[in-house]
Amino acid sequence: MKKLIITCEHGGNKLPEEYKNLIPQNVLNSHKGWDPGALEIFKNFCLIPNYFSLVSETSRLLIELNRSIDHRNLFSNYSKNLSAKDKKLIIEKFYSPFRKIILEKIKAAIKSGFTVIHLSIHTFTPTLNGKKRNTDIGILYDPKSEGEKNFSALFKEDILKKSDLKVRFNYPYLGISDGHTSYLRKKKWL
């Protein structure tokens, strides 16, 4: 039996009221502030049976939910100069609960005998620093994991049956880079 757990770490560009003036609106509205389209894709995936899902609509420029707690870019250029007290509160209010809920759901599913498949939904800007990215969909996975490799191949095959989109593996990012998925891979589940 399989259990699908779907996350969307960059589903919005919202800021809590106390940080509304921290980041210019034009930056929040850009791909730097969130993943445009990710929330809509996330909602479509949530139509699949036997899943649990969690989305954050808080801007990654406040705190980057897709980075490890000790990553140098956990806080953006806009939020990195906040006081230690503010950073601690942001971690406690936004980062830790998001990560904790997913950990608990995965542990419970495994304990109930499920094999867990975690999908983390993101989008990427089609052009970065003047360079056009040569794909429509990137499926990121750890190439050392046969399970991830097999699932990714089937997922790509299914997408290509239904569309003429260009799908590439581990592009425009590597599937092993620091992120929520790579963090979860390293956990000891039982």
What does the largest sheet look like?
3 strands, parallel
- Global structural class: alpha/beta
CATH superfamily: Zn-dependent exopeptidases
Alpha plus pi helix count: 5
CATH domain class name: Alpha Beta
Q: Could you tell me the strand content as a percent range? A: 5-15%
Task: Work out the number of β strands.
Answer: 7
CATH fold naming: Aminopeptidase
Order of helices and strands: EHHEHEEEEHEH
Number of spatially distinct domains: 1
Distance between the termini: 17 Å
Rg result: 17 Å
Overall morphology: globular
The largest beta-sheet arranges its strands as 2-1-3
CATH architecture grouping: 3-Layer(aba) Sandwich
* Poorly predicted runs of 5 or more residues: none
Description:
There is one protein chain. 33% of the residues lie in helices and 15% in strands. It has helices spanning 25-28, 38-45, 84-111, 146-162, 180-185, and strands at 2-8, 51-55, 115-120, 127-128, 131-132, 137-139, 167-169. The strands form 3 sheets. The protein has a 3-stranded parallel beta sheet, with helices on both faces. The chain is globular and about 45 Å long. The mean pLDDT is 94.
Give short descriptive properties of this protein:
globular, 190 residues, Aminopeptidase, 5 helices, two-stranded antiparallel sheet, three-stranded parallel β-sheet, alpha/beta
